[in-house]
Design brief:
Length: about 170
């Protein structure tokens, strides 16, 4: 698959996946601080660059909402939207695809947890629907470093995997 450059990532939206308190608390020591800080950098850039952000929450009535610091920043972006999902893929039995198409999105920057399940499943479904995917090891996490590393290899083979998320923030 030919990798798309970030500079050509018009029609971009950021999708923040399952960054709910209960899941963030279950990450290994130091991991939450690592990815939340980088996700916040991306979200602040989205506000400045007017890039839409979609938040996906797994069963929010059971697991609660996205952590406040990320949700507050995401809400400042244009076309901000939250979708509750009941399955790993944010596209399965939701109106996410319909919504993204209605605002002209073709490229998705995926951030969140769990890299090896919900983020990857959402990415697989996005590709099947014709979206280009982008992510970075700096903004996704698995339950352990081994599973995240396996997912990163998958993302490198199937999309655009950025080594330094700050390069993304500066180039879009």
């Amino acid at each position: 698959m030919e990798k798309q450059s970030i500079e050509d990532s018009g029609n971009l939206a950021v999708v923040l996946i399952d960054m709910q308190k209960i899941f963030v608390k279950s990450l290994r020591y130091g991991e939450a601080n690592r990815i939340v800080a980088k996700q916040l950098v991306v979200l602040k850039h989205c506000v400045k660059a007017k890039i839409p952000v979609v938040v996906l929450e797994l069963g929010s009535c059971f697991y609660g909402n996205t952590i406040e610091v990320l949700l507050e920043e995401a809400q400042k972006t244009p076309n901000f939207c939250v979708f509750e999902k009941c399955y790993n893929s944010g596209f399965y039995k939701t109106k996410l695809d319909l919504y993204l198409r209605s605002i002209g999105v073709e490229n998705l920057l995926l951030m969140g947890i769990n890299a090896d399940y919900c983020v990857k499943s959402t990415a697989e479904h996005a590709i099947h629907l014709g979206y280009q995917i982008i992510t970075s090891n700096e903004v996704i996490s698995g339950q352990d470093s081994h599973s995240r590393n396996n997912s990163i290899d998958w993302f490198k083979s199937n999309g655009n995997c950025i080594d330094n998320i700050l390069e993304f923030s500066m180039s879009v």
